[in-house]
Amino acid sequence: MRYAESVVDLVGGTPLVKLSKVTAGLSCTVLAKVEYLNPGGSVKDRIALKMVEAAEAEGALKPGGTIVEPTSGNTGVGLALVAQQRGYKCVFVCPDKVGADKRNVLKAYGAEVVVCPTAVPPEDPQSYYQVSDRLVREIEGAWKPNQYANVNGPASHYESTGPEVWADTEGRVTHFVAGVGTGGTITGTGRYLKEQGPVTVIGADPEGSVYSGGTGRPYLVEGVGEDFWPSAYDPSIPDEIVAVSDADSFQMTRRLAREEGLLVGGSCGMAVVAALRVAERLGPDDVVVVLLPDSGRGYLGKIFNDEWMASYGFLPATEGGTVGQVLA
Ligand code: PMP
Hints:
Its EC number is 4.2.1.22. Its cofactor is pyridoxal 5'-phosphate. This protein is of the alpha/beta class. The chain is 37% helix and 15% strand. The protein is built from ten helices and ten strands. The strands form two sheets. A six-stranded mixed β-sheet has the order 1-2-10-7-8-9. A four-stranded parallel β-sheet has the order 5-4-3-6, sandwiched between helices. Strand 4 (89-95), helix 3 and strand 5 (112-116) form a beta-alpha-beta unit. The longest helix has 17 residues, at 152-168. The chain is globular, with a radius of gyration of 20 Å. The chain starts with 15 loop residues before the first strand and ends with a helix. Bound molecules: 4'-deoxy-4'-aminopyridoxal-5'-phosphate. 4'-deoxy-4'-aminopyridoxal-5'-phosphate (PMP) binds at residues 44, 73-74, 179-185, 222-224, 265, 267, 293-294.
């Protein structure tokens, strides 16, 4: 019989699939690494597992302990899944702007969710940063992974994502493209690939974020871009950073679902736009690998909703022709 001992053993080992429609006219090969096939539905399962295992080894997380992290997104799901299987409790702290669906996913795995007001500065005792720090102090056996500064985030990608890309392309990968949030994916995967051969590493960043020279100006694509420089990010790894607009990111996200059968999130569309811009200048021997972090299921009410897209002016003229009439 062939089966995994636990769902945690299913983390990683995601496949590559060739993009064939959105790449029309390009001569190089563009392969997407499909991270929504992780058991928690995103690339973040990888860092969750590695951060928990390292904390266990260091004695920071002991049997019966509690994981406390300010997160509402994919990292929370990964941590909740690993914690549950290893017998830890989870308390996630998130701002009230986070939708009920996202909170309910965490609760479904058995995690506790503490909601804090969004409209307070980070130094306010009610802010979600302050509340998570207080909970770490007050809960006995509490441990905070802190994905923005935890070296085991990039390490998980150095040990799993990088070797998978290298092995699955049989060392033929020439370019690796990934969105930058905490910077863990690009830092760990990029470092590993550069040690194997002459691989060019490209970061994709929302316009307005610091990685592409912005000030942290708001953008709508989720999970990527920052208004500060996290220590999980090593700026010496990417050879280039490509800034992508929300409109371009979301339009490509919809094309990936309609044309490639990949229902993925907005940061995936963003990374593919960056990958295609790079691919335009490449030749038939080049192999571009672009990492797609999560699924589109979490964005049905936004990116895949014509009214939402139209309300921001994101719908291209060729798509959703009736929406203008509906809104008029
Ligand atoms: N896309 C999504 C949807 C994410 O949740 C994240 C993680 N914040 C990223 C991209 C970026 O990954 P990383 O934090 O490793 O830079």
